[in-house]
Amino acid sequence: MTTTEISDNEIEELSNSIGNLINLTSLNISLNKIKELPSSIENLTNLTTLNISFNEIKKLPSSIGNLTNLTSLRINSNQIKELPNSIGNLTNLTKLNIKYIQIKELPNSIGNLTNLTSLNIDSNQIKELPNSIGNLTNLTSLNINNNQIKELPNSIGNLTKLIRLHIYHNQIKELPNSIGNLKNLDILDIWDNQIKELPNSIGNLTNLTELSIRKNQIKKLPSFIGNLTKLTYFRIYNNPIKELPKSIENLKNLNEYDKKELEEISIKKELNPWYKIW
Q1: How far is CA 199 from CA 37, 47, 222, 224, in A?
Q2: In this predicted model, what pLDDT tens digit does every residue of 3-44 receive, in sequence order?
Q3: 33-72: burial string, b at 16+ Cβ within 10 Å, e else
Q4: Is 226 inside any structural domain?
Q5: Which residue range is the domain that position 57 belongs to?
Q6: Taking a C-beta distance cutoff of 8 angstroms, is the pair 187, 209 a contact?
Q7: Is residue 13 domain-resident?
Q8: Most buried of the four, 66, 87, 187, 191, by CB within 10 Å?
Q9: What is the greatest pairwise CA distance in the chain?
Q10: Does the pLDDT value for residue 270 go beyond 90?
């Protein structure tokens, strides 16, 4: 047996004998009522996929770090309050989903997971990201929505393969200039933070097609915003915008809704006689 699927069965306890299935490569115990993992899980060293999501697990055993062949780990929607440092041993992981648990911080050892392409830490209680996040240079998707993060480390600029970056509904007050290094970004979602201005380096993100900055405290857009000529989706409402740069007229690929919104801002603020820019 190499695959075991026992999801959605209202199981409350996982037998210690699971550790005898040493040839398992895939284990799915999601959507049950399991409260803890048996210590014998450390024997399943051939696992490449482990899904323990949607249970009532409160703690991951440090022996989880023995499962060094894992490439995909889903522990989302549990009651886990802390990740063991040993998670940094899982250096073959490409996908890690830890959303909707209750962690307050990421261990520095997260930076050892240099093969990760997707990291989802949505909806936790995290207040800061470790600098070691910058080691995850193979990431293409990073979701840190719905946390309590107040600033992004400069090392975020090392993640130059990122295509999607979602950081909405946090407490971020400014973006580091290094965000301009993320030149492969297609989607940048930073709405519902406390950002007062965008760095000029935002103009380097010339592959962006979607940018949402709504519900911040931004009063002025930098002229470099006009470099983002591939934008089709640009949401800026619920900001105290007082000035639109003339370069906004370069954004000719915007959808009609966003074009109309920009025109209405121009008219309302009486900013420029060129408000009908398209």
Answers
A1: 46, 44, 8, 9
A2: 889 998 999 999 999 999 999 999 999 999 999 999 999 999
A3: ebeebbebbbbbeebbbbbbbbbebeebbeebbbbeebbb
A4: no
A5: 1-120
A6: yes
A7: yes
A8: 87
A9: 75
A10: no
Q: Is 269 within a domain?
A: no
- Residue 101's pLDDT is 96
Residue 115's CATH number: 3.80.10.10
Please tell me the total count of domains within the chain: 1
d(CA 81, CA 102): 5
CB 70 within 8 A of CB 48: yes
- DSSP 8-state code for residue 263: H
217 in a structural domain: no
Count Cβ neighbours within 10 Å for each residue of 90-111 and write b for 16 or more, e otherwise. beebbbbbbbbbebeebbebbb
pLDDT of residue 4: 87
pLDDT at residue 211 tops 50 = yes
